[in-house]
């Protein structure tokens, strides 16, 4: 190769490292030292992480009250179709033994509700929800139009099945004095949902806006979309926080969704004090028909979310296993090293 | 068809196979015979039979009719064959060759059709149709269409590029020009315009464009010399001679233009050396044979011009008929991959069915009673289950990997480029880089078991050089300066003192020159004089330059050597020969030429010196010469020793001797000679006998040693490949001795190799067959086939077998026509039954025999097949392919290798030489044999390992990815969901990640599946656990399915990319870049797709707005991802470490000890063992041709007389042109 005739080497090849496959290489050696180091380090990290997670999860407080059975009479009343417009309320007293410090969040939780079913999850119209075109209902089968061919607003199966119980938490200071615990219905959603994905038609009077367009209320809804929150006119239409929260479909048939945040004023400035409380629930959402259950949850949070122990435990277990594995590997390595020196003298 | 031969004795009724001739019967396949005559009705046949049997067997085949200068004749209706419906086509092919597959119109439909023949493509088409059904459409239509279009597009573009290259090549060949008679004049025409019946003119060094009948040429007697290297690999010149009548009357343009001969001959076939036909002209018929036919692919040499009549054109030519079918080659891995895909497909169906049943059950239990899931249709749960089955088939389609095929193609394309770019396979001398002509076979290069190599032009350079000689017992040729001392400084001998030297001979022994010049030893001069005088070489003097045309390259080399050493052969006439002896020209009378033939293995010439002495000069194989030496030969022993040394160096040797003949003795002998040469019967035998009488009591002069120059690095390559357990078979059309010699030269054969020849093999096989039959009987079917070896274990064995023996052994003998005819139409039912039965028995026997032969051959370390036809070469390859189930590679350079190149799994062509046929049909081409080791051991291995690694990884990744859906099904009521299209959209990284340098072992497909399944479980269940209870930091909307999808997807991307990182043995910046790049790309694309802006633009297409930013803000999601990745990867690291510690693999060990091994890996050339006198092989004599030109010379036919140059003839058509000397 060194002595090339100079006549016509028109097809002489490019002598670049890439083309000649001679790029500088670094070989990944699984040497004992490196592997064991990685394992021990990972083990320590996982153990520490696990302990921290468990500790912080235990520092939270959570109260869950399943009211499916407590409010069974309401459910029964509802199952009779003739009583669909009768309001049924149900009060659930409970005792808070210790005070819940800091931010307290209220959730409703559904069991056996398949919000992740494929056809269900697809039955929504993002174009409608973004406030551009009320008539964009193509994706909403089977809740696209009413019988007289007017578009349903909001259309689709998700919207139609929106959770519509009202839950009011009150603090019973004594047998006669009941204070309603102030709950905030704002900032329950992601910013992007509230400000990007969901938009009302325009900022003018909502009711007029919707009334101006011919539309139909979803079959399961007792009231129109512009009338969801009677107290706060801005919390209405597609921008209603409860609506947005519901529209973000859950991944599993058991899920909880944020219902309200404690407004830390006056009496509740430090959180919920210990004492007697009660939930006053207006029972609208039927779950017994599909053998589902619903409950209400009060919880405080830490940096890593709620009081789930899973991650902490998983980290701890992983850490422990990694340590075990590294000890085993070290043992094997030392055994074989003495036997076959040749493998490891680099 | 060849029935009746099951009574084995019939095989032996013929004499022993002839080792010298190339068999020709191999092409007459049964099908061909079946085709012919089947149209004849039985009654007619029976009537004709007797008559036919008495006639010459070939006569009746002559149905091919050619009329000179009459194109219309060949367009008559009865020559038309219906080709397609009503489109008729002449049975005479035109001369355009067509290797391309598509044209502009057929490309799209034909290519699509080809592509949809692939199961995977068809599957995705079906999937696409399924997706069009709204009830079951679970993914957006474009998720399948886009990949499918990409796949089809990429493949189509590749096919298009390939086909354009073929178009170009065809065009290049079809547009070559030659002269054709049109309207009474010779006009330049393109090859593709030539048609059967045209009269054409070819000039010196032209390729012959079609199979033509030689009509006349510029040479006396219309001789025409051709080189047939393209056809049979032999480079010596062959001469063809036209009929006397055409030679006489068809020299001028006007006579050629009015030539109206009519030829009847055999139909086109692939017999290169056979031709039968008759020329009818001027009311006389003239028989035609192969000696008058110039075949397409030959090159005209040493003949100024010649005229011919086209008989077969284009696809009908013998070379084309010989080239075999172009096979669509696929690799082992392709088959394996298909098999895996089918497996996966079955798994997919099972999974979908399981999930569908689950869904139906769930519907019945839960779904039906869930008011919120009301979809307006009253379908029963089982119907819903049925629909969801198809839905799952669509959602899980990623399990059957469409991208697999594309990725594999892309990888192979890349590998092909690495081959094309490889500087170490670039041959600077010829400016030829290696080229991967097909891009689909690369990884097969790493699996080769057998290499079938051509000899001439592949192993050897096809250059013979005079290397050494032994004169009067003294060896010359090693490096020596004039004072007879070995010298370290290698300096070539300077031949400039000699005006006739061509300066191309490299010789290093200055002492020899000194000897010649000083004339101290008369034998030295006599030695070279002998070389200059005793031969049948033709000389051609153009511009003062001497050009020798020899019947064999060895002879040419000897005469050329003599010329360089000062004894230049200048000219010859019928009975004189003129030599320049160190500058003085002397003319000798040639009294007789005693020609070479394979029995005599020697040739002699008797000359009368100008002084009047009669001398006989003889050269030949040592075995025959030594028998005829005079008793008193002082240098006998020394020469013998020299011959041993030469043979050990694998030089081709010849002994030279002479004797003086008394005038009286000669006169007496001459009488006998004359009588013998006119003998009407057994002339050859009579002559041999006469020759024997005079060739005795010879005085030994010495011996020559010629090197059949191997290509550089051939022995090293062969030894390297042998170390890789690759067996090399040499298949050559050349002679047995030559082939054997080359076997030694390239160290396939060594001194301690036991060589088996055809006879030995035949008897071994007979014994084996006998054994098998005895063992057979009733229990034969139940007994397991016993595999005992043919040879005792140990020892080094080689097989040398000739084409005739091959035919004999494999029962491929020519079928006798009359037997066929008799059997063509069985008269009774009984006969028919007997026939089929015996046919079956024969088939079984043949198969058994072939299998035995292959088993036997594979036990030998080397196999050399010589005197084999192109078709036999292919047959041998096919046998090994069939019975050994091994991957084969064929390498060759000539048109005679085309068939075998096409047959083998991988065909390699030697490029950079004149003929392109082999290269055209090859899969890879490069300029030197030695590049084979790099191609196989480097590129092949890499390609293979990378491909396997890729496949394993791919299946792993695919399963990890797809099965996440499967697990999810258990939590969403077994309904399909749309995570996957989002995932797949976000997964370009998975398909572009570094596909290089991935060392892996492929056999563990199921291991990778299992790995994939486990990974998918980890990827799913850890996030699941984390999500079930948790809430976001801000308490808002936790555990929504979009965040869940993002979490899993991120964990998946990081895990699989890190997995690649772990699998990568050699990290280059490309790897690092692609791995971290694809992770970065993933996050980049994800954030982009989840941004607010894109949602505003396309609210319905991008629904994940804000998911990434919101989800990945949460520390617990990151913690989940980290945990998932760690749990997914740590076991892999542990297992890899443990397996390396406990069971280190070969390459692990090599890695550990790479420095030390580097030194050992150096190839060490075998020690040359000199064992004087014990050498058993010495007859590697240097004649590779059958017979010299002695006949031509002594008859004077070839001696050129003064004749007008070509221009004169062409220009002056009317000038009377008669040859003056026609003896």
TrEMBL record, chain A:
Coiled-coil stretches: none
Major location category of this protein: membrane
Swiss-Prot/TrEMBL keywords: Glycoprotein, Membrane, Transmembrane, Transmembrane helix
Biological processes, Gene Ontology terms: phospholipid translocation
One Gene Ontology cellular component annotation held by this UniProt entry: Golgi apparatus
Entry keyword annotation includes Transmembrane: yes
Localization of this protein: Membrane
Transmembrane segments: 35-57, 309-336
Tree of life domain: Eukaryota
UniProt-listed Pfam families: CDC50
GO MF term set: aminophospholipid flippase activity
UniProt similarity note: Belongs to the CDC50/LEM3 family.
PANTHER family per UniProt: CELL CYCLE CONTROL PROTEIN 50, CELL CYCLE CONTROL PROTEIN 50C
The protein's name: Cell cycle control protein
Source lineage: Eukaryota, Metazoa, Chordata, Craniata, Vertebrata
């Amino acid at each position: 190769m060194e002595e090339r005739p100079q006549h016509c080497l028109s097809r002489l090849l490019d002598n670049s490292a890439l083309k000649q496959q001679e790029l500088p290489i670094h070989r990944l050696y699984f040497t004992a030292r490196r592997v064991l180091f990685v394992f021990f380090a990972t083990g320590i990290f996982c153990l520490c992480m696990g302990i921290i997670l468990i500790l912080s999860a235990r520092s939270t407080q959570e109260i869950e009250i399943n009211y499916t059975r407590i409010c069974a009479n309401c459910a029964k009343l509802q199952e009779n179709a003739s009583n669909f417009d009768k309001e049924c309320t149900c009060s659930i007293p409970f005792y808070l033994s210790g005070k819940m410090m800091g931010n307290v969040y209220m959730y409703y939780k559904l069991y056996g509700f398949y919000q992740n079913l494929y056809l269900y999850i697809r039955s929504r119209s993002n174009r409608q929800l973004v406030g551009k075109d009320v008539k964009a209902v193509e994706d909403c089968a089977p809740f696209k139009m009413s019988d007289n061919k007017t578009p349903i607003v909001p259309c689709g199966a998700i919207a139609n099945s929106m959770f519509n119980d009202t839950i009011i938490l009150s603090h019973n200071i004594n047998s006669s004095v009941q204070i309603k615990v102030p709950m905030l219905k704002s900032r329950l959603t992601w910013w992007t949902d509230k400000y990007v994905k969901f938009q009302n038609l325009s900022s003018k009077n909502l009711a007029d806006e919707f009334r101006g367009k011919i539309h139909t209320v979803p079959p399961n809804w007792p009231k129109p979309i512009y009338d969801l929150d009677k107290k706060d006119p801005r919390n209405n239409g597609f921008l209603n926080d409860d609506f947005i929260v519901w529209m973000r479909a859950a991944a599993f048939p058991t899920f909880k969704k944020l219902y309200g945040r404690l407004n830390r004023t006056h009496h509740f400035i430090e959180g919920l004090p210990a004492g007697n409380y009660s939930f006053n629930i207006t029972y609208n959402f039927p779950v017994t028909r599909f053998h589902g259950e619903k409950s209400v949850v009060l919880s405080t949070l830490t940096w890593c979310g709620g009081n789930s122990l899973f991650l902490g435990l998983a980290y701890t277990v992983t850490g422990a296993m990694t340590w075990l594995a590294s000890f085993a590997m070290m043992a094997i390595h030392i055994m074989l090293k003495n036997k076959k020196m040749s493998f490891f003298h680099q | 068809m060849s029935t009746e031969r099951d009574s084995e004795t019939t095989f032996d009724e013929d004499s022993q196979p002839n080792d010298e001739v190339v068999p020709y019967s191999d092409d007459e396949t049964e099908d061909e015979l079946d085709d012919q005559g089947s149209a004849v009705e039985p009654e007619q046949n029976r009537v004709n039979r007797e008559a036919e049997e008495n006639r010459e067997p070939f006569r009746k085949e002559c149905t091919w009719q050619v009329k000179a200068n009459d194109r219309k004749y060949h367009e008559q209706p009865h020559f038309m064959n219906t080709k397609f419906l009503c489109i008729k086509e002449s049975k005479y092919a035109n001369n355009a060759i067509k290797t391309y597959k598509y044209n502009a119109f057929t490309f799209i439909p034909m290519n699509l059709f080809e592509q949809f023949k692939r199961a995977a493509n068809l599957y995705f088409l079906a999937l696409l149709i399924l997706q069009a059904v709204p009830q079951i459409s679970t993914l957006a239509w474009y998720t399948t269409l886009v990949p499918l279009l990409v796949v089809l597009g990429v493949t189509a573009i590749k096919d298009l590029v390939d086909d354009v290259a073929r178009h170009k090549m065809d065009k290049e060949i079809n547009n070559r020009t030659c002269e054709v008679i049109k309207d009474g004049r010779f006009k330049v025409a393109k090859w593709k315009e030539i048609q059967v019946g045209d009269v054409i003119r070819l000039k010196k060094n032209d390729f012959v464009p079609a199979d033509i009948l030689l009509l006349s040429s510029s040479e006396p007697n219309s001789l025409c010399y051709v080189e047939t290297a393209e056809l049979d690999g032999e480079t010596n010149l062959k001469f063809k001679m036209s009929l006397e009548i055409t030679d006489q009357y068809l020299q001028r343009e006007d006579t050629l233009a009015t030539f109206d001969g009519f030829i009847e001959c055999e139909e086109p076939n692939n017999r290169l050396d056979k031709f039968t036909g008759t020329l009818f002209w001027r009311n006389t018929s003239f028989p035609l044979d192969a000696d008058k036919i110039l075949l397409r692919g030959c090159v005209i040499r040493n003949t100024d011009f010649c005229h011919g009549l086209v008989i077969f054109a284009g696809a009908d030519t013998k070379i084309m008929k010989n080239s075999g079918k172009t096979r669509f080659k696929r690799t082992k891995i392709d088959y394996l991959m298909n098999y895996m895909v089918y497996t996966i497909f079955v798994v997919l169906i099972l999974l979908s069915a399981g999930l569908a049943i689950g869904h139906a059950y769930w519907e019945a239990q839960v779904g039906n009673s869930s008011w919120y899931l009301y979809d307006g249709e009253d379908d029963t749960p089982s119907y819903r289950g049925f629909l969801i089955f198809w839905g799952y088939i669509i959602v899980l389609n990623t399990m059957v990997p469409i991208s697999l095929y594309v990725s594999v193609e892309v990888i192979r394309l890349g590998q092909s480029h690495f081959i094309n770019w490889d500087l170490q396979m670039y041959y600077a001398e010829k400016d030829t880089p290696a080229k991967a002509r097909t891009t689909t076979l690369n990884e097969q290069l790493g699996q080769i078991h057998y290499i079938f190599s051509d000899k001439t032009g592949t192993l050897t350079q096809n250059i013979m050089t005079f290397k050494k000689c032994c004169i009067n017992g003294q060896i010359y040729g090693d490096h020596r300066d004039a004072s007879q001392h070995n010298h370290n400084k290698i300096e070539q001998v300077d031949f400039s003192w000699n005006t006739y030297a061509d300066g191309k001979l490299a010789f290093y022994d200055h002492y020899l020159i000194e000897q010649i010049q000083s004339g101290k030893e008369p034998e030295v001069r006599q030695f070279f004089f002998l070389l200059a005088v005793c031969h049948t070489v033709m000389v051609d003097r153009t511009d003062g330059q001497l050009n020798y045309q020899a019947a064999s390259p060895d002879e040419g080399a000897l005469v050329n050597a003599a010329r360089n050493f000062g004894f230049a052969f200048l000219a010859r006439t019928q009975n004189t020969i003129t030599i320049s002896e160190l500058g003085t020209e002397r003319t000798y009378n040639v009294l007789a030429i005693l020609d070479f033939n394979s029995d005599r293995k020697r040739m002699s010439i008797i000359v009368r010196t100008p002084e009047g002495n009669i001398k006989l000069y003889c050269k030949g194989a040592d075995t025959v010469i030594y028998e005829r030496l005079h008793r008193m030969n002082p240098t006998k022993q020394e020469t013998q020793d020299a011959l041993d040394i030469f043979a050990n160096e694998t030089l081709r040797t010849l002994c030279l001797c002479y004797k003086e003949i008394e005038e009286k003795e000669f006169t007496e002998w001459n009488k006998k000679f004359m009588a013998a040469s006119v003998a009407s019967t057994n002339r050859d035998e009579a002559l041999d006998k006469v020759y024997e009488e005079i060739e005795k009591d010879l005085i030994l002069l010495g011996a020559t040693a010629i090197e059949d120059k191997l290509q550089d690095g051939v022995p090293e390559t062969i030894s390297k490949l042998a170390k890789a357990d690759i067996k090399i078979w040499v298949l050559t059309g050349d002679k047995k001795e030559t082939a054997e010699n080359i076997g030694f030269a390239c160290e396939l054969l060594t001194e301690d190799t036991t060589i088996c020849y055809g006879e030995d093999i035949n008897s071994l096989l007979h014994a084996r067959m006998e054994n098998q039959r005895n063992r057979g009987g009733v229990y034969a079917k139940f007994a397991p086939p016993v595999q005992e070896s043919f040879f005792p274990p140990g020892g080094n064995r080689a097989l040398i077998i000739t084409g005739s023996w091959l035919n004999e052994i494999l029962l491929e003998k020519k079928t006798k026509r009359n037997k066929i005819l008799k059997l063509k139409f069985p008269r009774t039912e009984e006969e028919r039954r007997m026939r089929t039965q015996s046919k079956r028995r024969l088939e079984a026997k043949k198969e058994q025999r072939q299998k035995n032969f292959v088993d036997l051959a594979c036990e030998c370390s080397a196999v050399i097949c010589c005197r084999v036809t192109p078709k036999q070469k292919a047959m041998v390859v096919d046998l090994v392919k069939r019975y050994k189930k091994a991957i084969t590679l064929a390498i060759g350079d000539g048109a005679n290798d085309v068939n075998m190149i096409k047959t083998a799994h991988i065909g390699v062509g030697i490029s950079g030489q004149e003929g392109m046929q082999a290269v055209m049909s090859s899969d890879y081409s490069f300029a030197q044999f030695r590049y084979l080791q790099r191609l196989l051991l480097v590129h092949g291995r890499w390609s293979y390992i990378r491909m396997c690694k890729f496949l394993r990884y791919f299946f792993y990744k695919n399963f990890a990815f797809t099965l996440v859906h499967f697990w999810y099904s258990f939590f969403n009521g077994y309904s399909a969901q749309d995570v996957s299209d989002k995932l797949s959209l976000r997964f370009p990284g998975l398909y572009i990640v570094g596909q290089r340098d991935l060392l892996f072992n492929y056999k563990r497909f199921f291991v990778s599946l299992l790995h994939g399944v486990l990974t998918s479980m980890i990827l799913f269940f850890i996030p699941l656990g984390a999500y079930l209870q948790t809430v976001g930091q801000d308490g808002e909307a936790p555990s929504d399915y979009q965040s869940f999808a993002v979490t899993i997807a991120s964990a998946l991307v990081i895990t699989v990319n890190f997995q690649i990182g772990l699998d990568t043995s050699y990290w280059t910046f490309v790897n690092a870049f692609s791995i971290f790049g694809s992770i970065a790309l993933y996050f980049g694309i994800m954030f982009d797709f989840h941004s607010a802006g894109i949602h505003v633009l396309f609210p319905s297409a991008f629904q994940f707005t804000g998911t990434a930013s919101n989800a990945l803000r949460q520390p617990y999601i990151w913690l989940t991802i980290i945990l998932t990745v760690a749990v997914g990867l740590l076991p892999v690291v542990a297992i890899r470490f443990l397996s390396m510690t406990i069971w280190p693999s070969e390459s692990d060990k090599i890695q550990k000890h790479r420095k030390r091994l580097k030194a050992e890996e150096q190839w060490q050339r075998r020690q040359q063992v000199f064992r004087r006198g014990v050498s058993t092989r010495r007859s590697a004599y240097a004649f590779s041709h059958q017979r010299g030109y002695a006949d031509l010379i002594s008859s004077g036919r070839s001696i050129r007389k003064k004749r007008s140059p070509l221009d004169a003839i062409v220009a002056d058509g009317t000038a009377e042109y008669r040859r003056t000397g026609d003896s």
